[in-house]
Write the structure tokens for this entry.
Amino acid sequence: MVSTPASGLAVQWILAKREFVRTVRQPSRIVAAIATPALIWIVLASGFADSFAPPGADGSYGAFLVPGMAVMVVVFGSVFGAIALIEDKREGFLQGVMVGPAPRWAIGQGKLVAASLITWLQGLVVLLLALPYSHASIGGWWHAALVLGAVSFGVNGLALAFAWRMNSVAGFHGVMNLVLMPMWLLSGSVFPRDGAAGWMGAVMSINPLTHCTEAIRAALTGTPPNSTQWAATLFVAAAGVALATLSVPKRRL
Amino acid sequence: MNTVEIVGLRREYRSRRRSVRALDGVDLAVRTGSMVALLGPNGSGKSTLIRLLVGADKPDAGTAKVFGIDAGRLGRQRARIGVVFQTLSLDPLLTVRENLVTHAAILGAPRDAVDQTAKLVGVADRLDDRVGTLSGGLARRVDLARAVLHGPELLILDEPTTGLDHEARASLLKTLDRLKREQGVNLLLSTHQMDEAERADEVVLMNEGTIAASGPPDDLRRRLGTHVIRAADTPEMRKAAGALDIKPNGRQIVISGDEDRIADTARALVAADLPFEFGPPTLGDVYLHMTGRRLTEGSEW
């Protein structure tokens, strides 16, 4: 009997399904990914409530923070997805898959699809909870959700690209601190790009995450994202897919 | 016809401080329908050879072919191979069934393969238990099930019994025998346990990245005659061995040679009250004789 291996798309689905089951069985992972940004949102929104009135967002700092918090949930969630990949390598599950007939691109994209959908759903919870703070129409909310989905693919692709090269969970925290957190901090999530110092504004302008965050903010305040923001959104999603696909090691372990 | 053909395989691992030659010109063939055991201590090159065969690593020189195809270019033909690594390839958070279903789906195994294979390896009653809650022996059997779900023609096992107790090891080896006998699976097994290698049609003795000797277990043992003397490597023992064939390594000595002279030497050792063992040669004796090294550090022989 010779079996016929699953197609690349089927492999993606199988690996994604497994990741969902694993996530559900680790509720602390879901709670941590949502609760931490929620806590930060409460602290920042309350702490700066009367001392900081950003442009747009109805003048409320709490409302201004909502897109950034949704993006933060994705960033935090991507860390869990990357750590899950490192664990898969260390605990051995992946070695069994990697020496099998599944194409490498399908393995890489399977991990990406799973991690992205999980973080996207977590981010959507934030967008839903924040509805009272926004003036979004149903269409606007979906625009925001769509951009957040692209951000999920981009950030998870980046995190997985690092994770494929690492064998230590502790080492990945360095990536989190040196790459992902600065990327989020300089994305217009906590303060607007317009009010930042010149050099910082320039850095924020070339950070594609900034345009995505601003696109979500625009969508939630009733303004459709502009063409630059849509282009950045597409770029972020495409980069994430490319990173997750190309970073799978050629040698199969 | 050969399932595996390896010619002049070399692999060296280099770092800034030093380089280690893990394989140094290995030639090997696994005949279709046979079981081949790679026997050698840790660091002899067994795992490197397996990594190259499953496409997990690339050789510096030489070729490794499986089913006549370069091991690094097997693509979907990988579905014809099953691999059991030293460490489990299972997800401890999933149940046995979920693990097997996941791998079966990737490998394209038929729907009933999970239940059939679970029955074959004796885990049918544990399908709904999470792998993380199983004993080492049971988890190892599930891992074997994972590797044979799709009915591979070649099963490659890298020290599959590491860490198992006697009972679990015996059970696993029995299952391998069944797979070979009933399903005609070709087996390539790496081990440092003599009794595991004894089951093979051909044993390949590996030492420091090279093949020291190979052949059927009986043929290898016959190289040392019908009986050998095993003793501590002391000056008195070397003197007693006289002109007989000895292979001392500073700790142990295996004396082999003509049957009558071995018997005379044994009698002389008894008279001199020197402690020794006398018996038919084992693969461990052959290994020590060929390489001057023991199969397992810490073992008596």
In short: The interface with chain B takes residues 1-6, 10-11, 14-15, 17-18, 21-22, 25-26, 88, 91-102, 251-253 of chain A (CB under 8 Å).
